[in-house]
Design brief:
165 residues; alpha+beta; two-stranded antiparallel ribbon; 4 helices; 11% strand; elongated
Length: 165
């Protein structure tokens, strides 16, 4: 006779399921990982690989932290979700907001980004893509790499000359 709660010749079976491997939610690599401060997603802990002033986009952590509205919303300590935040939307030009909210550095992309008028060079009218850079901003106007910003009109010099002593 067996005791209550025990079965005769019972065996413990371990069921092996698929191993859960943590990977970066942006690039899919494993290894040295961390979680983002803004949204808590798993991401490469690779900020140490970024070379200052290189503007390289080889660091998942830096890309998310510097190139998304998600991180901007967190850094600025705005309330609520970044997708609904009017302050975040108002802080950026519509073209840049749309890019920051839909680029490949986001874990979740904004489903309905704002429409915007294309940015044109003040010299030749060529389309400037703000997120790509390669333009000059001077006197409230944007100039493509092919055009030089026009200098502001100089103030007329006084007709009166100083006498040397």
């Amino acid at each position: 006779m067996t005791k209550p709660g025990k079965q005769k010749n019972a065996k413990l079976r371990l069921v092996a399921g698929p191993a859960i491997r943590r990977v970066c939610g942006l690039c899919g690599r494993g290894g040295k990982l961390t979680t983002t401060e803004c949204c808590g997603n798993v991401i490469c802990d690779d900020l140490d690989t970024y070379v200052t002033f290189s503007y390289a986009r080889n660091s998942c952590y830096r890309n998310h932290s510097n190139q998304t509205i998600c991180a901007y919303h967190h850094h600025e300590e705005h309330a609520g979700s970044w997708q609904e935040c009017l302050r975040c939307r108002g802080d950026q030009e519509p073209e840049m907001y749309a890019w920051f909210a839909t680029n490949e550095y986001n874990f979740e992309k904004l489903q309905d980004p704002p429409r915007f008028e294309p940015t044109l060079c003040s010299g030749c009218g060529k389309r400037i893509i703000l997120s790509d850079g390669g333009y000059t901003f001077a006197d409230g106007k944007r100039w493509c790499e092919s055009c030089e910003p026009q200098p502001a009109p100089s103030k007329p010099r006084s007709a009166r000359r100083r006498r040397s002593v």
